[in-house]
C-alpha cells in the first residue's frame, strides 16, 4: 500500500464511528470487569499482535489488581477478504499458562476463525480459566460459533481502521475508530 500524499491517505478515512472519548469510557468499564473477576489470583493478559497493541496499552492501565502481560503473534491466512481458519503462531508465549487465569485481549472478531483457532491452541495448555475480551465485534460476519466473554462495541459489517486496526498496515495510529472507504 502506498499513498501519493497525506491528503490521499486522509481521504480514505470515511467517518469516525467510535470517538476517543467513547473508547475511553468503555475501557474503564472493561477494566472494572477484570478487577471484579479475580481477587488476587494470577492473571495473564494475552494480546495478539499487532492489531490489539493500542487496546492492550489502554486496558492494562485500568486494571488495578495484579496482572502480567504477554504478547503472541499469529498469521491468519486469508482467502479473498475472509480468514481461512488456517492460523500459524509466529511468536509464541513464554509463560506456562497452566498457572494463570488467561484473558485474550483482541482487537476485532470478524468471522471468528482466527480467535477460534487461538482459543483451541491455548485451551489445550490447561490455563486455570480462559476468557476472551474483544474491543470490537462484527457478529453479522461470523462463520464459526464464537462468543467473546466481554465485548466493548458491537458494530455492523464495516471495514474499520484506527486504534490499532489497519488497512494494508496503515492507519493503526489513528486515536479513534473510523470506517475505511475507497
Ligand atoms: P477473523 O478470523 O475473520 O475473525 O479475522 C480476524 C482478523 O481480521 C482480525 O484480528 C483483524 O486483524 C482482521 N480484521 C477483520 N475485520 C477487520 C476490520 O474491519 N478492520 C481491520 N482488520 C480487520
Ligand atoms: Mg488482529
UniProtKB/TrEMBL annotation:
GO terms for cellular component: cytosol. It catalyses: IMP + diphosphate = hypoxanthine + 5-phospho-alpha-D-ribose 1-diphosphate; GMP + diphosphate = guanine + 5-phospho-alpha-D-ribose 1-diphosphate. Pathway: Purine metabolism; GMP biosynthesis via salvage pathway; GMP from guanine: step 1/1; Purine metabolism; IMP biosynthesis via salvage pathway; IMP from hypoxanthine: step 1/1. The keyword DNA damage does not apply. Its EC number is 2.4.2.8. Pfam families: Pribosyltran. The keyword S-adenosyl-L-methionine does not apply. Keywords: Cytoplasm, Glycosyltransferase, Magnesium, Metal-binding, Nucleotide-binding, Purine salvage, Transferase. It is found in: Cytoplasm. GO terms for biological process: GMP salvage; guanine salvage; hypoxanthine metabolic process; IMP salvage; purine ribonucleoside salvage. Its cofactor is Mg(2+). Residues 26-167 form the Phosphoribosyltransferase domain. GO terms for molecular function: guanine phosphoribosyltransferase activity; hypoxanthine phosphoribosyltransferase activity; magnesium ion binding; nucleotide binding. InterPro entries: HGPRT, Hxn_phspho_trans, PRTase-like, PRTase_dom. It is an enzyme of class 2 (transferase). Purine salvage pathway enzyme that catalyzes the transfer of the ribosyl-5-phosphate group from 5-phospho-alpha-D-ribose 1-diphosphate (PRPP) to the N9 position of the 6-oxopurines hypoxanthine and guanine to form the corresponding ribonucleotides IMP (inosine 5'-monophosphate) and GMP (guanosine 5'-monophosphate), with the release of PPi. PANTHER family: HYPOXANTHINE PHOSPHORIBOSYLTRANSFERASE, HYPOXANTHINE-GUANINE PHOSPHORIBOSYLTRANSFERASE. Belongs to the purine/pyrimidine phosphoribosyltransferase family. This is Hypoxanthine phosphoribosyltransferase.
